[in-house]
Amino acid sequence: MPSYLITGTSRGLGLAFTTELLKNPENLVIATARNTGKSTGLQNLKAQYPGNDRLILVDMDVASLDSIRAAVKAVEPLLPNGLDNLVSNAGVSYAGMQSFEQLDVEKFTSEVDFTITAPLNLLREFLPLIRKGQAKRALFVTSVIGSIELAAHMPGLLNAYAVARAALNMLVRKWSSTLKGEGITAALIHPGWVGETDIGDELSDWVAKYNPSLENVPSAKSAADCMKVLNNITPEDSGVFFNHDGSKLPW
């Protein structure tokens, strides 16, 4: 039974990922969030799969190393054959659409710190379980906004978020080359512009002004696309920056 552990599943894309993966009766899905009991979406899924041990809810705050370590201890007995797939999805946008002149430096540094430190600690702590798994895959949700090559074409768009995602991209790009030697595939994925999410909604006015033809991808479609990419990547795809449709994006 393939196993998946996803962060940030209380709503938005994380919840959509969980919903998509549960469609396959062969999958074991561990959905994590700061407080799974307060997530209406997760509780509805639990009710939809009553008595089903394929959906496991685990409280984990990815901003806390102690919380991550506690989650590892909680899931270890449930994964005797290791963890096949880790999906790092939890993200923040503290500074929003502030210009660089207006940028709150404290919010900016907090956003960058979370975006690189949380995935770093997450992967480092779950690596022993991933090494025991069969698929040995880690997928990091990022954004095309973090593409250095394309940045000049996105004036004023979530400046802090863009810098933070560029840093995340480099973290995974660098680390993936080492992990590849162990047969572990670490890759990045842009889920598309999903306007119905909190962060996606922040882009609405910018898109209307600068890129009105940009596709607004429903969360269900984005989730299906992203999970298809995850399930098909191999060590040869280590360090690749994917679009949700499977194409590759420039750094």
Automatic annotation (TrEMBL):
The keyword NADP applies. InterPro entries: Fungal_SecMetab_SDRs, NAD(P)-bd_dom_sf, SDR_fam. GO terms for cellular component: cytoplasm. One of its GO terms (molecular function) is oxidoreductase activity. It comes from the Eukaryota. Keywords: NADP, Oxidoreductase. Belongs to the short-chain dehydrogenases/reductases (SDR) family. This is Short-chain dehydrogenases/reductase, putative. It comes from Talaromyces stipitatus (strain ATCC 10500 / CBS 375.48 / QM 6759 / NRRL 1006) (Penicillium stipitatum). The lineage of its organism: Eukaryota, Fungi, Dikarya, Ascomycota, Pezizomycotina.
